[in-house]
Design brief:
This protein is mostly helical and 387 residues long. It is built from 7 helices and no strands.
């Protein structure tokens, strides 16, 4: 086939072969680069936003937990407001993550985790609002405890002071021993009630500050002690003003006792809500962490894939250029030889023909010389004969 091809066809074949090699190499490199581009787009549009959003959500949720812990410990509404602010921020972030999972169905793991993630966050938010109601009840109970405690101590002290004054008057007036004994009993019993009241208030403050419901519950039997002493005083109290004071003392003691019970009930309810909140918190964190880990794994895998594609593309180009150079050299040698070989053969053929022509010319010249010599000899012979 090579011997029948014209020079232009041979040159065209050589350039065509090199162009074909370059096209193949370019195609392979392009495929690898497109694959790398796709991996980069996945990283930029899917996996990196997934990780970023999950980390931001985890940070916001940590702030929610911190503020809620402060609210539990101090009952300060400032912490609640901060917590609710972070809750709203987290809801926006969860919505963004959900939209990402819908936009890219390839994020299968994220799609699976959105249901438990949203459910547990909803449970947590519900627990926060339940806790808000319960803590409000606890704070209302605290206010009643403070008011009732003040009324109890102040009125009891007024009653005691009035009895001390009346005792001095009775002594001066020389009242009977029975009358003085009754007055002494009232002074003694009311003094005991005041001491019991102070102890209840002090231990209640300690129990509230330490959130010690065992200590708080231990206060309830002490109200029976107050009631017993109050009944004894009533039996020997006849002045209308003192009876009104005893009624106030009894009411304040009952209000205080009921508020202690209310405080305990709400605090126990708060503990139950906190248990549910912590359970939702743990499950939510697990879901967010799983999303984050899945995203990081995907980022790593796609980064490796992208690096592999780029490496393959560069390797292909380098190897391809080397092969193209080798094939180009071989093709150049082949084409050069296929071009020069006929020329050399033609030159040799011409040289050989030229040699034959020169040889033939020499022979003709020699023959002509011989013929001329022969003619001369014949002419000389003719002259001799003629003479």
């Amino acid at each position: 086939m090579g011997s029948t091809m014209t020079l232009s066809k041979k040159i065209s074949f050589g350039f065509g072969l090199i162009l074909f090699i370059m096209l193949v190499l370019g195609g392979i490199a392009t495929v690898n680069m497109i694959s790398s581009k796709n991996s980069s787009e996945k990283l930029a549009n899917m996996y990196v936003p997934e990780v970023e959003m999950s980390v931001n959500l985890e940070t916001t949720y940590s702030n929610i937990i911190f503020e809620m812990r402060g609210y539990n410990q101090t009952l300060d509404d400032k912490y609640l407001q901060n917590c609710l602010s972070h809750v709203e921020k987290a809801k926006v972030q969860i919505k963004q993550i959900d939209e990402l999972s819908i936009k890219y169905p390839q994020l299968v793991k994220l799609k699976e985790l959105m249901i438990p993630l949203k459910d547990n966050f909803s449970n947590y938010e519900k627990a926060v609002h339940e806790l808000e109601v319960v803590i409000k009840n606890v704070k209302d109970a605290e206010k009643i405890l403070l008011d009732a405690g003040n009324v109890y101590v102040n009125v009891a002290q007024e009653f005691l002071d009035s009895q001390v004054v009346a005792m001095d008057k009775d002594i001066q007036e020389g009242k009977s021993a029975d009358k003085l004994n009754e007055r002494s009993i009232k002074i003694e019993l009311m003094s005991q009630m005041i001491i019991i009241g102070y102890n209840i208030r002090l231990n209640r403050l300690v129990a509230s500050n330490n959130q010690d419901m065992k200590l708080m519950k231990s206060l309830l039997p002490k109200f029976d002690d107050i009631k017993t002493r109050l009944e004894k005083i009533r039996k020997i109290t006849f002045a209308e003003l003192n009876i009104k004071q005893l009624n106030q003392i009894e009411k304040s003691a009952n209000d205080y006792s009921n508020s202690v019970k209310n405080y305990i009930d709400n605090f126990e309810a708060m503990n139950k809500i906190n248990e549910k909140r912590r359970e939702a918190q743990t499950k939510f964190f697990e879901a967010v962490k799983t999303v984050s880990v899945a995203g990081m794994t995907a980022v790593k895998a796609n980064s490796v894939e992208s690096a592999s594609d780029l490496s393959a593309a560069s390797t292909t180009v380098i190897i391809g250029l080397i092969l193209a150079m080798i094939i180009g050299i071989i093709a150049a040698i082949f084409i050069t030889r296929s071009i020069t070989r006929p020329i050399i053969a033609s030159v040799e053929s011409i040289a050989e023909a030229n040699t034959q022509v020169v040889s033939a010319s020499d022979q003709i010249s020699s023959a002509s010389q011989n013929l001329a010599d022969s003619v001369a000899q014949q002419a000389s012979s003719v002259e001799e004969i003629s003479a």
